[in-house]
Fold:
Amino acid sequence: MIRLKALLIKEFIQMRRDRLTFVMMIGFPIIQLLVFGFAINTDVKHLPTIVFDQSLSQDSRDFIASLTASQYFDITDASTSYQDVTDHIQSGKTKVGIIIPPDLSANLKHGQSAAIQVIVDASDSMAASSAISAAQMVGQLKSQEIILNRLQGYTGKTFALPVDVRIRPWYNPDFVSAFYMVPGILGIILTMTMVMITSMAIVRERERGTLEQLIVTPLKTHELILGKIIPYVFVGYAQATVALLVGILVFDLPIRGSLGLLYGLTSLFIIASLALGVLISTLSKTQMQAMQMSFFIFLPSILLSGFMFPREAMPLFFNWLGNLLPLTFYLQILRGIILKGVGLSVLWTQILALVVFIAIVLTISIKKFQKKLA
Amino acid sequence: MITLENVTKTFGKQSAVNGVSLEIASGEIFGLVGPDGAGKTTTIRMLCGLLSPTSGNLSVLGAANPEAIKHHLGYVPQRFSLYGDLTVMENIRFIGSLYGQTTDKINALAANVLNFTNLLPFKDRYADNLSGGMKQKLALAAGLMHKPTLFFLDEPTTGVDPVSRREFWQMLYQLNKEGTSIFVSTPYMDEAELCTRVAFMNEGRIISSGSPQELRRSYKYQVFELSTPDRNLKARLKSSGLRDINAFGEKYHLVTDSSPTAITTVKAALAAANISITDLNEISPNLEDVFVALASEVN
Structure:
């Protein structure tokens, strides 16, 4: 215990003296949350749109008005030729082109189908899918309206839709991106700093030669590793607190579940990330190697954890790969507690997964770390 | 106290230490002497448990497992290995507590150890801001916090000014007198003279060992010290039947197998070249002469 305490005191003194790093550890989360919280929006609206209206009728103006009303399309250009539409999309000036045929009104009047072409720049898939579903929705609503009107005209009765699908988006009914993003960014920030800091920790002692002195003392491997983890649990908590405060104060993030539970489970994730960093540290010989290995963890953490891309859409293998990352489980915990307000009875699998992860990674680190130089 | 039996350490294909056997008794100031790259650091690191030998056996303080005796070892590595961003006092406290000392004990010991190493006035200075010599004293001080019975020092005076070097050796003598056995490596032959026993190491092998007196006595040649203003002596005396010519600062050591003929040839050769001899006398060999002779015999 005396040895571990000595190591902790030393780490805290060093942390206090390295002001810049300390300021960055606290300042980073604030900046990143503000930037990404405001910048990233997965619901792509206001796509610049060019319209080639050959009909120039009341019907075509109606349709264009409905498109604009959906907020997904901003009509930025009106065109006079098909070629013009192609050019606009080609050059990226607009993402969507809408071509209304000359016979729109005539076809509608005679009860025939009127084809409206919507060209979408699918090189940006997220924008494209937004545009497609919005255009389809507008088209269907318009068709329903016309059909109902006709039926009413023929029969003189009012009709209700045979199937009425009512969608209730729970937990985030207004699709506020920040509610989804802020917990995710919190997880990413914790992963980055925790893994990075500890991956440097032991290898730095190795590079500076101070490990040589530590090895000849009776210090035990597990004491050394705990001594590198414990101080940064505090840093992790400071980061999580700062991030949550920004989320609540700036983005009105609702905390629907228990804040105490959230804090408690955050410790599991912090320790899991620190353990991962320590493992990297024991495997690498230089700080450069440690840095590269950390990045090898970051990218999958961002891409496979469900932070941005739905895990349901991943092929089974990659879905399974994502289950090796602590962030995957922590995101489920974060979103579960913050947005859904669920508790232990729902989250116990994630908790179990993190505990198992910590146990395995720490055991490997302690086994792998040789109290030797080479 | 320390036994090495046929110890070999290889790094990849490179062998750093090659079949070294040594026996070191307690109470000695044992010097491992040799040029850079001889394998001194690797040997010390194996003895401290920092490296495992590739083959062979070693035991330190009667233990084959270095973990068991770490409480009794002190070690000053070649490269400064304490924390530059901690003060002298913080470093000492830290290392002291790693040996499980309680705070009261540490305070008492620290005052003692800082006094002994003359570091007390610098106790609040960051280790990074110490001179090379003071850093080594700090390393020594930190290593003394747990009163080791055996102290390893790897080239403790390399890069340290002469005054500090002398001070440092005085401290080692003091420690030795108080009962600590000392194992020190050095590339300096003048420091080898200060040891009670010396082992010469060259290219991974021990080429000879004994007390400085014994080593000098084992020397089979004669040495003449020549003072001359001429700086091109080696080429000039190439064919005069000398075993070896070594420069010692301003002077030359001429090594011969049999003195009378060789020296007359030297004198003749120098006279022929019109070079004045300031001084030419037979001297008793110093340890460097002994080492150079031994190293060339092995080769």
Notes: Residues 5 and 21 of chain B are 4 Å apart (CA to CA). The radius of gyration of chain B is 22 Å.
